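Long-time lurker, first post. I've been practising inverse folding by hand and with some scripts of my own, and I keep getting stuck on stretches where the C-alpha cells seem ambiguous. Below is the full C-alpha cell string for one chain I'm working on. Before anyone asks, I'm not after the true native sequence, just a reasonable design that respects the backbone. If someone could post their per-position residues I'd love to compare against what I wrote down in my notebook.
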C-alpha cells in the first residue's frame, strides 16, 4: 500500500518587495524551512515518496546558492523525491534544472522528471506518469497521453502534473495550462497529484491540488498545507488527508471604525494575534483625536507582536469633536483658520470635503505639538 506526501508550488527564491526588508527576508527564508518540515514529516510517516507537482523554483534566474540550498533542504528524508517543473521553472533547453545538474546539486534520491514519460518504482509498488511543463504556457493538455500509457500489472498509477483543471479554477490562476477534469478516470489513475493552484482543492476522490505549503498571498484558499495519500492498491480509492504545515498565517482585514466600540473590537483582535501573523489591514471611517491616539497605540503594539503589519489609512478620516478643538487651545490666526474650516465643512459647499480634510490635518498637527510640549 504506497503512501505519499504530495506538495507543490514551493516558489523557492520568491521575493517579497511589498514588505519591509526585515520581513521580506524572513518570509523568503520560510520557504526553505517548510521544505525541511516536509522532509521531517515524510521521514516520520515513512512515506514511500514525496511528489512535488511543479513550481519548485519561483524563476529560472534564481542564484546558484538558492539551488544548492533547496536541494540541501531535502536531506531530512532519504526516500525518493519526485519532482516535475511547472510554469515558473519550466524544463526549457536551458533552465534552472539543467543548471542544478551542472552544479552537481541534485542528490541521488531526487528524481527530476523533465520529460513526459512513465517512471516505475516497482520495489515501492507504483509508477509515476509525469507531465512536466517544457515551456511556460501550453494550449494543449499535456496529460492526454496518460490515457494510453501502459504500466506493469500490480503497480499503482500515479499522475503528476501542473496546470489548470478545466472548468474548475478561477480565471486569475497562475497558469492556463489545461488539464481535463476527468483525466484520473480516463487514464485509470489511482491518484493525480496537481500543482499550480496555491490552495488545497480536492477535485474528486483521486484528483487533488495540494496548494503551496507556505502561504504567500492574502487569500483564504486553504494554503499552507501538504497532502498525505494512502493508495490501498490499483483501482481502489485513495485515502487523502490535508495537513497544515505552513509557519505564517496571512490575513487581510477590512475594518470600518464608526463608533468607539468598533475601535475596542479592533484593538482586542489585534491584541490576540499570534507572532506568526502577516496582516494587511485596511481602515475606513472616522475617529476623534482620542480615538486616533488609541488606534496608534494599538497598531504600534501589534507591529511589535506580528511578523508583519501593513496598514492602509486612506479611507480613515480624523474628525475632531468640539471638545477636541477646545482642548487644543488654538487662538489668534490659527484659531481663525480653524473656525473658518469648521464653518466650511459643516456647509453644503463644494469644498466641504477639502475643508474637512484640512481641519483634520491641522488638528492632528496641533495635537502632536500639544503632546510634545513640556
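-- Answer (accepted) --
I ran through it position by position. Result:
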Amino acid at each position: 500500500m504506497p503512501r505519499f506526501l504530495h506538495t507543490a508550488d514551493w516558489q523557492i527564491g520568491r521575493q517579497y518587495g511589498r514588505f519591509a526588508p526585515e520581513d521580506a527576508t524572513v518570509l523568503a527564508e520560510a520557504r526553505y524551512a517548510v521544505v525541511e518540515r516536509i522532509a521531517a514529516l515524510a521521514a516520520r510517516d515513512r512515506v514511500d515518496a514525496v511528489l512535488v507537482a511543479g513550481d519548485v523554483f519561483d524563476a529560472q534566474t534564481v542564484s546558484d546558492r538558492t539551488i544548492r540550498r533547496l536541494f540541501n533542504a531535502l536531506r531530512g528524508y532519504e526516500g525518493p523525491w519526485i519532482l516535475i517543473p511547472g510554469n515558473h521553472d519550466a524544463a526549457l533547453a536551458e533552465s534552472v534544472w539543467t543548471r542544478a545538474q551542472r552544479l552537481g546539486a541534485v542528490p541521488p534520491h531526487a528524481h527530476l522528471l523533465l520529460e513526459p514519460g512513465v517512471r516505475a518504482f516497482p520495489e515501492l509498488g507504483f509508477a509515476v506518469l509525469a507531465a512536466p511543463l517544457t515551456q511556460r504556457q501550453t494550449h494543449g493538455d499535456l496529460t492526454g497521453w496518460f490515457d494510453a500509457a501502459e504500466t506493469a500489472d500490480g503497480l499503482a498509477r500515479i499522475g503528476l502534473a501542473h496546470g489548470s483543471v478545466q472548468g474548475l479554477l478561477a480565471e486569475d490562476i497562475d497558469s492556463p495550462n489545461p488539464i481535463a477534469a476527468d483525466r484520473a478516470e480516463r487514464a485509470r489513475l489511482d491518484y493525480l497529484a496537481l500543482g499550480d493552484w496555491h490552495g488545497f482543492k480536492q477535485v474528486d476522490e483521486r484528483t487533488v491540488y495540494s496548494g503551496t505549503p507556505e502561504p504567500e498571498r492574502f487569500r483564504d484558499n486553504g494554503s499552507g498545507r501538504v497532502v498525505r495519500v494512502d493508495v490501498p492498491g490499483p483501482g481502489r480509492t485513495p485515502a487523502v488527508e490535508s495537513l497544515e504545515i505552513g509557519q505564517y498565517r496571512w490575513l487581510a482585514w477590512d475594518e470600518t471604525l464608526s463608533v468607539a466600540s468598533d475601535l475596542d473590537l479592533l484593538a482586542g483582535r489585534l491584541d490576540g494575534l499570534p507572532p506568526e501573523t502577516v496582516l494587511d489591514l485596511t481602515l475606513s471611517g472616522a475617529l476623534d483625536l482620542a480615538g486616533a491616539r488609541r488606534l496608534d497605540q494599538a497598531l504600534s503594539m501589534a507591529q511589535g507582536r506580528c511578523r508583519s503589519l501593513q496598514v492602509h489609512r486612506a479611507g480613515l478620516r480624523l474628525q475632531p469633536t468640539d471638545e477636541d478643538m477646545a482642548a487644543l487651545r488654538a487662538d489668534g490666526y490659527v484659531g481663525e483658520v480653524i473656525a473658518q474650516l469648521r464653518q466650511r465643512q459643516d456647509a453644503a459647499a463644494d469644498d466641504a470635503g477639502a475643508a474637512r480634510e484640512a481641519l483634520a490635518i491641522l488638528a492632528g498637527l496641533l495635537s502632536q505639538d500639544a503632546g510634545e510640549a513640556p
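A couple of notes from the structure itself: The first strand starts at residue 3 and ends at 7. The mean pLDDT is 91. Happy to go over any region you disagree with.
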